[in-house]
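Dissemination and training. As part of the outreach component of the grant, students in the summer workshop were shown how a complex can be specified as a set of sequence lines and then modelled as a single object. The example used during the hands-on session is reproduced here so that future cohorts can follow it. Participants entered these lines:
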Amino acid sequence: MVNLASTALPEEICPPALVQGPTEFNQVTEIVAGVAERKPPRAWYIAFTIALSLLGTLGCCLAYLFWEGVGVWGNNQPVAWGWPIVNFVFWVGIGHAGTLISAVLFLFRQNWRTSINRFAEAMTIFAVMCAGLFPGIHVGRPWFAYWLFPLPNQMDMWPNFRSPLVWDLFAVGTYATVSLLFWYIGMIPDLATFRDRSVTKIRKVLYGIFSLGWTGSNRAWHRYEKAYLLLAALATPLVLSVHSVVSFDFATAQLPGWHTTIFPPYFVAGAIFSGFGMVITLMVPARQLFGLKDLVTMRHLENMCKVIMATGMMVGYAYGMEFFISWYSGNPYEGFVFINRAFGNYYWAYWIMVSCNVIFPQLFWFKKIRRNVWAMWIIAVLVNVGMWFERFVITVSSLSRDFLPGSWHYFKPTIIDILTFAGSFGLFFTLFLLFCRYLPVIAISEIKNVMPEAHPGHHGEEGE
Amino acid sequence: MSNNQKLYGALAEFDNVDSIVAAAKECRDRGFRKWDVHTPFPVHGMDDAMGVRPTILPWLVLIGGFAGLSIAVLMQWWMNAVDYPFKISGKPFFGLPAATPVAFELTVLIASLTAVFGMLALNGLPKWFNPLFRVKRFSRACNDRFYIVVEGTDGTFDAKETPAFLESLGAIAVETVPLPDESEKLPAGVVRFAWVFTSLVLLPPALLYAARNSTSSTPRVHLVPNMDFQAKYKTQTASPLFEDGRAMRLDPSGTVARGELDFHGSFMTGKEDNGDWVTELPVPATLATMERGRERFDIYCATCHGYAGRGDGPIHQRASQLALSGQAIWVTPTNLTEQRIVDQPFGQVVNSITEGINTMPGYRQQIPAKDRWAIAYYLRALQHAQK
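and obtained this result:
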């Protein structure tokens, strides 16, 4: 076949092929299934050990928290929303790239998504699980967390649906469910591929159960594709709604610095920004370790860098606009809060946020940097750092300087705060490494679908 | 025909997209009904080639979406406006703006669940038992080969002719698929496991239900004693820390709350120095005072005494319901339109608000003195209006 990448045409006219190298369907299967069938590289074991010990740390922190109560954290009046909420928003934000790549890029027929969507969807699910953890433990007595749900109870009480915290529960719950369904139904055909290649009994049985007896029947494909399209159409407004609703938690409060209408779009842009940051952070080492460079090409990484740069500028615009509005509104409290953010007691957090989110991504204007895996990895990690600090700045700087100067207070995290947050990375990476080890990391059937051989009538074009 | 019943069908293998699409067209034109094409990925144009009719799935999803929307709106309205109405921040019990986020999310949720489970149901999945899985050749169906399967139950199927026809379409291999003589039922071990698993899952909720509906003489179990018994002093408890042995501290003597500095004794308490009630209103008897009084009354008094002052406010209504089932002890709020109250001078009403009376607590801290007089003034109008 013709490998378009090897021709001399300029890229604007003829972009490099999405799949470089494998030309036979079987080869795609071999590459992806090989990841789950071969013994993983040593780096996987090292990473898994680290992830498991962090997960253990999380377990210990949670046990201590449940035993002692939320006093083990640095949360105290007036900063009652400390790290747990910062971490919640951080993880939910990361969880946005997956569904965005799966749904929005699918609707826009951006075929380059096929190599990275499975990966990003898995990341979404695990990030949303980490996110769900924090409000659950932040309620103080986590065994009463079921009070959040509209369940009949002996107190004859129902949740207050006029509260954004209840909206949040529905938004994040729906998002987690729909993302999981999206991820799972995308995986069914690939699990069937794994099933058919299984050698050991246990693999055959487990992949067999989860592939639901998929045979690649065209009548099934017909409904499957329709269901996938419908899910994408439903998930697209959903992905925009989730972080909007998260932002309502802040925006419906009267606190200066929170009570702004720019929050929903600003949060959504930030979420996509941080999500893509995390995809690059994970994808760059994974494609190296598992030999996926033919499927996840430089073009994929470059596209993601461009998305990061675009959303980074949107976030930068929002930072600027917040300042403008606080001045333009003439509200002295708003004015104080924003001056305090940039030059007050948490100035260092503010400037970490601005440099990581607005300044460093500007380096992606240079093609050399967009194509250098080391540079892009470092910038992606900085984006993650910057986005964590964004949530920290919003939550903590506003609360620590509330209406009464008498109650002002400088928030400091405790060691348990820090270990719990580090432990949530343990949960995330443990699940992620298990996913890389046992599940199809790349959507096999979708990749085959974008190969030239998959289209009737492609024969005879060879040798052009 | 008897030969056909032992066969599941005939299987033809193809090795590229073009030949499978061409072959599918031939099969369609030959008029097979029970047949299918198996490919490792959805092949463009195959639906036309096979003559697959559009699925009804989008309609199901539309119905699911409407169901989600209706459930969400009805649920929020019924829970917050009907079954358990409570005022918060002066918001209406039910309003579309506040109901929108949950309505949107449930619409998407139910529609998505319909899309996924509707797709699986229409496809007859999960179907873990399939005679095709017994064919070794078929194991490449999800990898790199393409298959046509004509089932034995198709009216035009013939054990000899059909495979020959498939062969003529350019298949690289054709074979007949026997019906396995195994049972389609799940293995006994799996069924047993499912029963045990289901019972174990149902056990905790059953125990919870039993515990909720019975009484016990043993004290409740404290799973997390540190959280249940916290090292802190509560109100009305003793503390060795202070000389008077009380955990609660009194205000230092001479403390005056903001705005409560008592320059004019009778203005604060409604009582003259000689102990008589104040009878003249010490605030201007204007419409503005009346409006202020109405506003404050509706905020502070109406929750128990009712907007018309008849002692039937929302707290009273709910508390007396709870009292009926023995869940609360409740003393009915005074009907402020009774002659006994109508006869009270302004000063006595203000004094009741300030100091509290019977089971009603004093509102000295919550309502500034000027507003207490405004309330008394408004109450007089309320009583007159209902004579």
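Chain B has a mean pLDDT of 87. Students were then asked to discuss how this feature might be tested experimentally.
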